[in-house]
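Researcher: Here's the sequence for the chain we discussed earlier.
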Amino acid sequence: MNAINSEFFHKKNYESAAKEREILRSSDLDKLVSALLVCMENYEQLAAATPFPELKAIYKHYAGERADYAASLYARLGQDDRLSINEEGGIIGQLKPAWAGTLFTNTESDDTNSLLNHIINNELSAIKKYDDYLRNHIPVIKDLNLLVWQQESIKQVVTGL
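Model: Thanks. This is the structure I predict for it:
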């Protein structure tokens, strides 16, 4: 009968767990960034549908803010170079395209209130993604501060809508 090499066993389990944590980390980060990009697109659509210049400026500001949040999360928490910024300031890279199919399209029958309701739902979904990421990962303090600050900022916007 062969004796179990406990050192090898523990090393193998540790390496396996590390790989699983990295997959989970990447998946949670992708979900969070995707949620932020959906919110960005929704705000851009709302800005386009709003006839009031002041509201257009506010919605465009929120859209830019969500894009900045997504870019900063990938820059600080992403392990690879899948994300970059093009000349116009747009986010490009190998983001999972799943978020592209979930965008809210504005048809003639849609009004500003339905767009706004959709945005609120997506913002609440993004807040939940922050909670999921924070629950599944233990970020260093500076990254924790960034995550909490972004999440609180989104909560304030939702409260104000």
